[in-house]
Design brief:
By secondary structure, this protein is of the alpha+beta class. It contains 8 helices and 7 strands, in the order βαβββββαααααααβ. It has a 4-stranded mixed beta sheet, covered by helices on one side. It has a 3-stranded antiparallel beta sheet with strand order 6-5-7, with no helix packed on it. Helix 1 packs across helix 2 (about 90-110), helix 4 packs antiparallel against helix 8 and helix 6 (about 155-180) packs antiparallel against helix 7 (about 185-205). The longest helix is centred in the C-terminal third of the chain and has 26 residues, at about 155-180.
Length: about 250
């Protein structure tokens, strides 16, 4: 179960906006909307939450902005938005990203999908590394290895091309699905370019530079797609209105 907590100071004007964005983030991350609220100075508030400015959202005990607070000042905090502006309300995408990471951690703990999704580019990379049958020096070793594995039919380009293309399609589509979850499509575009370059270099132009270049770019796209996103945050000594600063 994902534990979500909202910490606030009574009277801070950004609480309502934080609740609104929290609900939106739950919907975006496809996580049931359930959380606990703590007024920072209330007698029943745990000691670990008393040093945190308002409003702050924790997911499984971690600040959605990755900040550690130690001063304990009564203050509203500022969040740095993706476009460089500041807001006193935690952005929806920041909360959603934290919820998605928590959901992914749950799946990994139960042996679920994301671990497998991170490996979907591997078969396509292996297929891309297989030598073309048009290489005379590679033919004996290639044919012998595949025959020993019961895959002798792959010595024909008629089979190797569709197999490589299918594996690349799976890898690129997987990157695209994860990019949609994280609202970041750069890795998907890079993966598509890598797949096209690999296929053209291997089966059309017989260019090792293009083939290995496409493989390298596909690896880079997979790594980029799994690189964590984080927006920064700050705090101010006085409560800031819910709107953005000029």
């Amino acid at each position: 179960m994902i534990e979500v907590e909202l910490i606030y100071d009574d009277g801070c004007p950004n609480i309502s906006g934080a609740r609104t964005n929290l609900l939106r983030a739950f919907a975006r991350a496809d996580v049931p909307a359930k959380w606990a609220e703590w007024e920072r100075t209330s007698p029943g508030t745990p000691e670990r939450l008393r040093n945190i400015p308002s409003p702050t959202i924790l997911v499984n005990g971690q600040d959605v902005a990755g900040t550690q607070w130690i001063d304990g000042r009564a203050s509203c905090r500022l969040y740095l938005l993706a476009d460089g502006r500041q807001s006193g309300v935690p952005p929806t995408e920041l909360i959603a990203a934290s919820l998605i990471r928590a959901k992914a951690s749950q799946r990994r703990a139960s042996g679920g999908g994301p671990r497998v999704r991170n490996l979907t580019a591997v078969p396509a990379i292996v297929a891309g590394l297989l030598p073309n049958v048009t290489c005379p020096a590679c033919w004996p070793a290639y044919a012998g290895l595949l025959s020993a594995l019961g895959l002798g039919f792959l010595v024909s380009s008629a089979y190797l091309f569709p197999l490589t293309a299918a594996l690349l399609l799976v890898a690129v589509c997987t990157i695209g699905l994860r990019a949609r979850e994280r609202h970041r499509y750069g890795p998907f575009v890079l993966g598509f370019v890598a797949a096209a370059t690999l296929l053209a270099g291997k089966f059309v132009l017989a260019s090792q530079i293009m083939t290995y270049g496409g493989i390298a770019v596909l690896i880079a796209a997979s790594l980029w797609n799994n690189w964590p996103r984080r927006l920064a945050s700050a705090a101010c000594p006085r409560c800031k209105p819910a709107g953005n600063s000029p």
